[in-house]
Structure formats: C-alpha cells, structure tokens
Amino acid sequence: MKLMLRREHMNKFVMVFVFVALLAAEGCGSSNTGLGTTTPTTTPTGTNSNSFDWGAPYFYGRNIYTSIDGSSAASAPYWAAASSSIAAPANNVVQVNVDGGVPSFITNPNIGIYANGIFATVNVCAPGTSTCQSIDHVLVDTGSYGLRLLSASAGGEFTLTLPRQVATDSNPIAECTQFVSGYIWGPVETADIKISGESASSVPIQIIGDPNFAVIPAGCSSVGGTNESSATGLAANGVLGIGPFPQDCGSACTSGSGTTPIEGTYYDCSSTNGCTATFESLTAQVQNPVSHFATDNNGTILELPSLTGATATVSGSLVFGIGTQSNNAIGTTPILTINTTGSEVGDFTTKYNGNSLTGSFIDSGSNALFFDNSSIALCADLNNNFYCPVNLLPSQSATQIGANGTNSTVTFNVGNADTLFNSNSGNDAAFNGLTGPN
After folding, report:
1. Burial environment of residue 103 by CB neighbours within 10 A (0 to 12, 13 to 18, 19 or more)
2. Given this model, what pLDDT does residue 73 score?
3. Which residues, in sequence order, are bridge partners of residue 269?
C-alpha cells in the first residue's frame, strides 16, 4: 500500500479478498458468484509501468530491513534483505499474522478473507492516561507512514476519544490519504502508541471514517478511485505505516514548499465553510510511530517464514530497531539505499525483463508482486488484475539496484492466481507466487 503523498508518480495498491467459500478480488464490496469463483469489485485507477512493486510475497522466507530517514541507522534510508530467521518474543518484537483478517470481516459477504494481509495488534491510549484500547488486525505496511485506525462508526474497532489536532484558527485538521486504488479520509488526532514493549507519546495519527467529517472535500475525492474509509473499503482495522520516512508528506506539505497548499493532503475544516487545503508542519503531520520510540527507533525488520504455494495462516515477527539489540543486528547484509531527492523519492531500480524500472519499492501492504510482462497470461475470468500462466513459472529473476549501486538478485515464482485462490476450498489466506501487472 504505497502512500502517494510523498510520491509524484502513482503506484500500485491492489486488495484481494478471498472468501471462505466464495473468492473475491479487489475489495470495496463484491457480488458472490458461487463456490470457487472470483469476483473483482474495483479496478485500480492508476498504474506505474516504470515500477516493480515488491509486495507481500517478497517477504516470505526473508527478513526485510527498513531503515528510517534521518535516524541513527548508517546510510539511512535503505532496504535490506536476509534469509528468514524469526525473532523470539522480546520487548522490541510483536507477532504478525497472515490469517485472513478480522474474523467478522471474513464472514461478511462484502469483505471476506484478506489475501496476504500482514497484521499486528496495536495499543493506543489517550495521551498521558491509562485509557487505552487494543486494536487487532492493523495492516503492517512498509509502503506508507503513520498509524491510521478505522473508527467503529465506519466498521472498525476504534472507539477512544482523543484530542483532535486543530489549526491556528482552532478548526480541526483532517487528512486525505491517497493510495492508487482510492483514498481514506478523517481527522488527525493525538495518541500514545504502544506496540509490544515499545511506546511513543503524543503521536499524530489519523482516524478513518469519523462521522463528524462526513463531507469530503472535492480536492480529496477528485484524486480518483474509491473512498476506502470503511470496513468494506479498507478490510482492516487500520494501517501501521512503517516505511523509510518519519512523516507521511514531508516538506511538500509545509509552508516552506510554496504559496499554495497541496490539494488532496491536509485540510482545515470549518463547520460553516467546509474543508480547505492547508499547510502542515513536519511535527504536526501523521508520524511513523517507530521514529518516536525511545531507543529502537531507527527502523524495523519484518520477518516471515518461507512459503510454497498457499496456506491458511502464516506467523512471523516485526522487530523494532536495527543494530540496537542482539535480535536486530544487520551484520554484513548488503543494503540498498533509496532515493531521497527527485521525482522518485523512496524508490530504487529493478532490472527485469530487459528494463530498468526506476520507480521500484518494497511494500508489505501490497498483497502481490506487481510488474509488467505482456508474455505472461492474465487471468481470463473477472480476476484479471493478476497473472494466470497455464503452468507455474518458477525461478523468475530480477535485480534490485540501490541508489548506492549495491545489487541484489531476487528469484521469485509466478503462480496461477485462480489456482492459488481456489486452493483449500478458498480457505487459504497466504499466497506465494501471487503476481499481477502494473
């Protein structure tokens, strides 16, 4: 789920939902068509043919390091990959699960199983108090930045009352968060965040689907795609954005960026005049919570075991910090630095099929590997956002190249999406080999 606020190009975000007995692809509601069939419900509104989206299947069998820009991690920001070794429980470790998502969503005919969704539990509290709530099935997303929780009124779990961020005119601040399939909308509020033994105080977060912010400004809705500020749209109780930057928009949204605030980002919302685009300082923007931890704050390691084909559930670990404790050393693992300037900030190059794809990124929030290859057959049914070769295409190869010139050759499989989704009578949630076009 790659966040667009820091991006000048559009990137792939495809959601796949696999029903217990009825399969669906592409989120935001569906019509059921019978056992073992697939039904897409929305179509991505933007693509980037110059990218390779290394989504959730890339994480199986690997430890993926994500360092945060401006942190103590040497050469940050960067990605790095090592062979999988799942960390044991510790104060800086939280368990992650690929289990299909929120149980009540799985049985909802408009949502169903969330394929390749990597989930964790996050605790949020009113700042400085013991008034807290534990939110399960928050999507772990290395392609975005900040904690975003789905309100109970929109079908999620979040019910706390938190202090609302306000502008200098005392009007509340809301945010339009853009993804390629659509957008989410809601106010910015302040919370203490606790994950395993780590904590961050007074962090700006976004509350999705707050009914007090029912009117969405045209500058947000006009970005294209669907409004995903609901259970059927998001299919998770929230998003934990732990990408390689500390804020979700950066200097582009501050007053120093120009004379006119960017539409489709932050808004000053008046009860009489509606919401108008506004500047937002770096410290007021929705924050990557990891960067606010006391010590293990320079990055993360997302660790999943190896997987062949499909299975019902997978469990792994999300480790906080890089080189801060004995369980998060990086050793001699090669690092691929990412672009910090230009039009492809946060990206690196992938050489694949004779092309140099300079807008590539690693994104646990995308549930497939997305890349263009016209020689691979698309699924012929309604699930045509994915590849369906007649036979498994094993040991495909691509080379990742960091901004520092470091190379890493990656092999991956291209499976038949229909075959994967129909495995185990449609009860599986974890799929290696799931791929599709940009």
Report:
1. exposed
2. 82
3. 275
Neighbours of 92 (CB within 10 A): 23
Dump pLDDT digits (tens) for 107-146: 999 999 999 999 999 999 999 999 999 999 999 999 999 9
Query: Looking up tokens 């000053």, which residue turns up?
Result: 268
In contact, 163 and 190? CB cutoff 8 Å: yes
Q: Quick: pLDDT tens for 199-235.
A: 999 999 999 999 999 999 999 998 778 899 999 999 9
Beta strands in 264-392 (DSSP E): 266-270, 274-277, 299-303, 310-311, 314-320, 335-337, 348-352, 355-362, 369-370
Distance between CA atoms of residues 350 and 408, nearest Å: 9
Under DSSP, is residue 151 helix (H, G, I), strand (E, B) or coil? strand
Low-confidence ranges of the chain (pLDDT < 50): 3-47
Q: In sequence order, what are the beta bridge partners of 226? A: 182
Classify burial at 127, counting beta carbons within 10 Å of its beta carbon; exposed 0-12, middle 13-18, buried 19 or more. Answer: middle
The DSSP line for 226-294 is: EE--SHHHH-SSEEEEE-SSSBSSGGGGSGGG-SSPPTTSEEEEETTTEEEE----TTTS-B-GGGGSS
Residue 327 neighbours by CB under 8 Å, 6+ apart: 87, 88, 90, 92, 93, 319
Q: HSE, CB side, 13 Å, CA atoms: give it for residue 349.
A: 13
Residue pointed to by tokens 């940050």: 76
Instruction: List, in order of start, the domains of the chain with CATH numbers.
Output: 16-436 (2.40.70.10)
Whether the Cβ atoms of residue 170 and residue 126 lie closer than 8 Å to each other: no
| 362: helix, strand or coil | strand
Six-digit token string for 362: 């690693």
- Cα(322)–Cα(215) distance, integer angstroms: 42
Q: What is the largest CA-CA distance in the chain?
A: 61
How many whole angstroms separate alpha carbon 438 and alpha carbon 357? 12
Q: What angle do CA 91, 143, 409 make, to 5 degrees?
A: 95
